[in-house]
Write a structure and sequence with these properties.
Order of helices and strands: EHEEHEHE
Strand content: 25-35%
Mean pLDDT: 92
Helix content: 25-40%
Low-confidence stretches: none
Radius of gyration: 14 Å
Number of strands: 5
Oligomer: single chain
Distance between the termini: 22 Å
């Protein structure tokens, strides 16, 4: 991000299969306290008793208002492919999607 001062909101959606795979959770929660523009959402796919969001990154994105947003994502190819498909089906502008896959 070239000029962070002009950024109105940053949301990090961090998806994992198991809660124990959430790295840096405490640091991201601390960032939320330090900068009100930063929002951290963790989503866990394979633990039905997880107290936060359950499912996949795409499940969280479906609930969000993405108007005026740009998407930057990284992760395994199945996740990025599923997210691109979801966004494309919602007529989200392709030029607002950036990604890298492992």
């Amino acid at each position: 991000i070239k000029d962070i001062q002009n950024v109105k909101k940053i949301t990090l959606i961090y998806g994992v299969n198991l809660e124990e795979e959430l790295l840096y959770k405490e640091q991201f929660e601390q960032f939320m306290k330090e900068d009100k523009r930063f929002n951290f959402i963790s989503v866990v796919a394979n633990e039905p008793n997880y107290p936060g969001e359950k499912g996949f990154v795409t499940d969280v994105l479906k609930k969000m208002d993405l108007d005026q947003s740009k998407i930057y994502m990284c992760g395994p190819k199945p996740m990025t492919s599923a997210t691109i498909k979801l966004l494309t089906n919602q007529n989200y502008p392709k030029e607002h999607i950036s990604y890298e896959s492992a």
